[in-house]
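Our preliminary data section would be incomplete without showing what the modeling component actually yields. Below, a chain of 353 amino acids is followed by its predicted structure, encoded as tokens that our downstream tools consume directly.
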Amino acid sequence: MSDIRTTVLLAGAGGPGAVNMTRSLKLGGVRTVGGDASPWFIHLAETDVRVPLPRWSDEDAFVAAIRGLVDAEGVDFIMPNNSVEGEIYSRRRDALGAPVFLPSPEAFAVGESKWLSWHRFRDAGLPVPRTELIETAEDVHRIFCEIETRPLWVRGAGIPGKGVGMASLPCKTAAQAEQWVDYWGGWGGMIISEFLPGDNLTWLGVFDRGEVVVSQGRQRDAYVIPHVSPSGITGAPAVSHTVHRTDINRLGPLAVCAVDPAYTGPAFVDFKGDKEGKPRITEVNVGRFGTTHHFYSVAGANFPLLVLALGLGHALPAWTRTEDVLPAGLYWIRTLDAGPVLIREDDVGCQPQ
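Predicted structure:
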């Protein structure tokens, strides 16, 4: 980084992704300015400056407030960790007053739709689970006759904040699936896929005009409060560990570049192993890190600082490597109001010192 202290703006600063980003940036001595639309969660922000912001749904007011903060606080760079926010920044980057390092609005449009991105992956010849869009009750019953695996995975085709996001449920019968889609009003906005029983994997990469700059793979082993979800998967890993896998190292960049061959910025690709253990792509998350990316920063690979260096044209960190940037077998352990803790594989099951 430069000898001059850099200031970064984060919206949604009280959310877990932005809190982890703040912690990573502070490891590099970065000054942070945070805003949040919630009068409650803004008090969780760990930024040096905290201010209220309008909601993203009032886009003009939100962009005007961001520009005002850029001018008032001398912001050098804007860094999102939410796809809805990132899409606004990408589309209206000329109005922000400070640079971003993000993919195109078109890439966000594809990434925000699991149905559109599934088509991109399939058309590129990449391994994906069989997936269908649910438009009618007849679709549900037909698919249950055509796909033999049980349960079948029914979920929203959008992301939180756009379309039907989340709403995932493993369904054993067509009646269960039909009722679930009906509950969410999800006809035409939800998908159904074959169930994959293998490992839950993710690959995080940073790209510059279609080229991987740095990446790391990880396996999710357990989840925070799994009992609240019928699948036992909540989207918030309680235990995860770094992996070195040639298959996801190959497929991750191919999946992202299927969304946009000239992709720029961070992205993470999720995989689920099939019955033979081979990973199939389930989704791509565009323009952001996962919520637990601080794991990598503590372990020695600070992805937010690398994005900042790329966005501002600074020299890249010495640890930069295109794949497997961290050792395998590093575990990140956390739960509600406890942790996180970083341990090595040899420490699993050992008495804490």
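The chain has a mean pLDDT of 92. The chain has ten helices and 15 strands. Preliminary results of this kind motivate Aim 1 of the renewal.
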